[in-house]
Amino acid sequence: MGHGPVAVEVYAERFRSQGQYIKVTEATLTYVAIDDAGNPRPIAQETM
Q1: Is 24 inside any structural domain?
Q2: What does residue 42 show for φ and ψ, rounded to 5 degrees?
Q3: Using CA atoms, how far apart are residues 42 and 34, in angstroms rounded to an integer?
Q4: What is the predicted pLDDT for the residue at 13?
Q5: Which of 3, 11, 13, 45 could form a disulfide linkage to 26, CB 3.0–4.6 angstroms apart?
Q6: Is the model's pLDDT at 37 over the cut of 60?
């Protein structure tokens, strides 16, 4: 499937009583598949 990290951007919004959405937090999460020794490894197709 791939050899590098996967980055996912997420955010959360709050709905205000005035009918507005306001962003309250955001983050970029980075996932890396590692082997038993803690080294990066390719992501196999069957794990997706």
Answers
A1: yes
A2: -65, 150
A3: 8
A4: 96
A5: 11
A6: yes
